[in-house]
Amino acid sequence: MKLNSLESVMADFRKMKFKIFTVFVLLFVLTISACKKDSGKEDPLKAEDFLDVSYGSHEQNTFDVYLPEKRGDTTRVIIMLHGGTWFEGDKKELTEYALYYRNKGFVVVNMNYRLTGTAETIHPAQQNDITAAITYIVSKSHAWHIPANKFGLLGVSAGGHLALLYTYAYDVKNKIQTVVALSAPTNFTDIENLSLQQAVAIEALVGKTYDQDPSLYFKISPLVQVNSLSKATLLLHAKNDEIVLVQQAMALKNKLIQFGVAQSSFLEYETGHTLVNDTNKKEILDNIEAWLRGNIL
């Protein structure tokens, strides 16, 4: 009886040791897991590209997304709009610059929008496309590990016009913090001083001639839409622009000053409508980068 009792005690002791060991292991695992969570440190995100993402129902509603490495809640987002007189052009024209700014740490969304030529693509189709693109980006902000409220618009020529107009008149959810426009037309109310090519392109954009509905030409003019609440604006224009006269940018600059929009700037270059060349490219890219960093907060 005594031997059996001793064996029973030893068996109970071994079971207790096993239970204690199991509890210790569990506590160790939980402690390590908690430490990892508390540290908040995760593996840094790698750069990613998503090309030809569909953000709307039209075949031209696509954009390319360039996500930088180590992105997070403080990363700035640039949405780019190509030029082409509203009836031609493609996002691939800005791919070089999209990659450049992604490598500088920006999220870049390089978008296509509906080009004019049909009844369904007249104004405000392009403005609606920008809204749809922003809505899609916001819906993906968690999955892409990017902020949902640090946006800037950057447009070239016709894309610059669309960017300015959206920022001043169509950003009803107040998502855009700043706009950058290169070689952009800003005023369509002075129809007599527009070239025939411009007049035809604008008519295709709004669907009517100036004589048929002058109010449309006022509504699509960024110059007319400026007010005291307009967002920070950077204008870059060539002194010798033969397609969009530099006076367009100067008039907008003066209107911004008139309404007390302190954060606005106008940079003039000795080139033509294309604006960027091998000589001034670095200066222009650096100026835009500094502006975006200072105005997307």
What topology does this entry show?
Blueprint: H1 2-39, E1 48-54, E2 62-67, E3 77-81, H2 95-103, E4 107-111, H3 125-139, H4 141-144, E5 151-156, H5 158-170, E6 176-182, H6 196-206, H7 214-219, H8 222-225, E7 232-238, H9 246-258, E8 264-269, H10 281-295
Q: Could you please describe the fold and organization of this structure?
A:
The protein is an alpha/beta fold and about 300 residues long. It has two domains: about 1-40; about 50-295, Rossmann fold, CATH 3.40.50.1820. Helix content is about 45%, strand content about 15%. It has ten helices and eight strands. The protein has helices at about 1-40, 95-105, 125-140, 140-145, 160-170, 195-205, 215-220, 220-225, 245-260, 280-295; strands spanning about 50-55, 60-65, 75-80, 105-110, 150-155, 175-180, 230-240, 265-270. The chain has an eight-stranded mixed β-sheet with strand order 1-2-4-3-5-6-7-8, with helices on both faces. Strand 1 and strand 2 form a beta hairpin. Helix 3 (about 125-140) packs across helix 5. The N and C termini lie far apart (about 80 Å). The model has no long low-confidence stretch (mean pLDDT about 90).
Numbering strands along the chain, what is their spatial order in the largest sheet? 1-2-4-3-5-6-7-8
CATH class label of the largest domain: Alpha Beta
CATH architecture of the largest domain: 3-Layer(aba) Sandwich
Task: Tell me the structural class.
Answer: alpha/beta
Write down the overall geometry: globular
* Sequence stretches where pLDDT stays below 50 over 5 or more residues: none
Individual helix count? 10
Q: Any idea what the radius of gyration is?
A: 28 Å
What does the largest sheet look like?
Answer: 8 strands, mixed
Order of secondary-structure elements:
HEEEHEHHEHEHHHEHEH
**Oligomer kind:** single chain
